[in-house]
Specification:
- This protein has 418 residues and is an alpha/beta fold.
- It is built from 18 helices and nine strands.
- A nine-stranded mixed beta sheet has the order 3-2-4-5-1-6-7-8-9, sandwiched between helices.
- It is elongated and about 90 Å long.
Length: 418
């Protein structure tokens, strides 16, 4: 028997549909009885009550009203199952066509559609959390934090930035935004290395560079050996580079690197990165960069795609409790800001994406001018923002000085206008 018929019979019998609406079930869960459920909703909205069976039968004389003995939860579960199936069914043909060409892509496609259907057709009664009854939970959290000597989270490696952000905590989703060629990837790699040096296991997803190129940047940041010298095979760095690599161990954490090659030369979704996080028990993930990710729906427009990616990465952080740093490119609107070198892009300058600020806990904006890196927190959930931090910045040799001296400040003050 059609589960929708059973559900509608129960609604009319109880003269109540709150057992459905309380868990988020609406008209979209009904497929073969759209007219009937629409009539019931219209009657309730108009007259304030569910129509009685006689009124309903006058409108739908052929509809078989049943005596239903199953519990409400059974009806909810079965209606949800059917709704998910109906959402997936239209994609079966494309799945079959793709299966003949590329089975990996086909499986990835149908899994994303299943995940999307489950998300859209999720049912759960929202009860809420008592402010009074959760008081002990808040105290326990405070007490745990009080026992930590120093930063609560992972240090960024920059003392002034840690003082503002409080480090990188387990529930942090951090965006780093800059215009092209400023050094987003270098900065993200620096944060990853800093965490590694604190004994953490860090993951880097690089959508542009291969594993060796990322590894060589880490080498430069850790050893201050010229990256150009390493990349070009210059003889004058051989001895120092060989010595550094020979002494390298994983006693102080590790950095695991994945690229599109590890995902079948495809841009990964957030769910594909979940396996990387969970299987390696990562303490931190750096995504380089947002535009080189794919959303579960494989949206056609860049705006839909990027906004979905932000939402899905935020959900990934929540699910895995692994902090995530995502690098984002500022778009054309940020170019006007570039005319005044002392300024950094705003979060709304992120290309094709206006939802970053809604989901992130912290947002850092970068600008570089004549060897001076400016880092400005644009969003900071529990602290100050819009306070610039200036540092010496030599990407080739991996030097990032945490703070300019007073002499350095005097030297660049004219350029920056302070």
């Amino acid at each position: 028997m059609n589960i929708e018929v059973q559900v509608i019979s129960r609604i009319l019998e109880k003269k109540d549909m709150s057992f459905l609406t309380d868990v988020g079930i609406d008209n979209t869960f009904f497929n073969t009885t759209k007219s009937q459920i629409g009539f019931i909703n219209h009657h309730k909205n108009t007259y304030g009550v569910i129509p009685d069976p006689t009124t309903f039968k006058e409108e739908f004389p052929e509809f078989p009203l049943l005596k239903v003995s199953e519990p409400d939860q059974y009806l909810i579960d079965k209606l949800q199952e059917q709704a998910i199936f109906n959402d997936i069914l239209p994609h079966a043909q494309q799945f079959g066509d793709m299966l003949n060409q590329d089975s990996n892509k086909a499986v990835e496609y149908i899994v994303s559609k299943i995940d999307d259907a489950k998300s859209k057709k999720a049912v759960k009664k929202v009860i809420g959390h008592s402010y009074v009854k959760t008081a002990q939970d808040r105290y326990n959290d405070y007490d745990e934090r009080s026992k930590i000597d120093g930063l609560i989270g992972i240090s960024t490696g920059i003392e002034e930035l840690d003082n503002i952000l409080g480090g990188i905590e387990y529930d942090d989703f951090i965006a780093v935004v800059a215009r092209p060629n400023v050094g987003k990837s270098w900065f993200g790699t620096y944060l990853a290395l800093s965490a590694k040096q604190q004994g953490k296991k860090v993951g880097i997803y690089s959508g542009e560079m291969d594993v060796n190129s990322v590894g060589k940047r880490i080498d430069t940041l850790a050893s201050n050996i010229s990256n150009r010298g390493i990349q070009r095979g210059k003889e004058d760095v051989r001895s120092k580079y060989k010595q550094y690599l020979d002494n390298l161990t994983d006693e102080e954490g590790d950095i695991l690197i994945v690229t599109t090659e590890d995902f079948g030369h495809r841009e990964p979704t957030a769910q594909m990165l979940k396996q990387f996080i969970v299987s390696n028990k990562l303490d931190l993930l750096v995504i380089d960069q947002m535009s080189l990710m794919m959303d579960a729906n494989r949206s056609k427009t860049l705006s839909d795609r990027y906004n979905n990616v932000v939402r899905e990465v935020h959900a990934l952080m929540k699910e895995t409790k692994c902090p995530i740093i995502m690098l984002c490119q500022a778009g054309r609107k940020a170019m006007d800001v570039a005319k005044a070198e002392e300024k950094t892009p705003e979060l709304h300058h992120i290309e094709y994406c206006d939802r970053v600020g809604q989901f992130i806990t912290k947002g850092l904006s970068l600008n570089e001018h004549e060897g001076i890196l400016r880092v400005c927190p644009k969003k900071n959930r529990n602290g100050a923002k819009n306070e610039d931090i200036l540092m010496k910045w030599d990407k080739d040799c991996g030097y990032i000085e945490p703070m300019l001296s007073s002499e350095d400040l005097e030297e660049v003050s004219e350029d920056y206008g302070f």
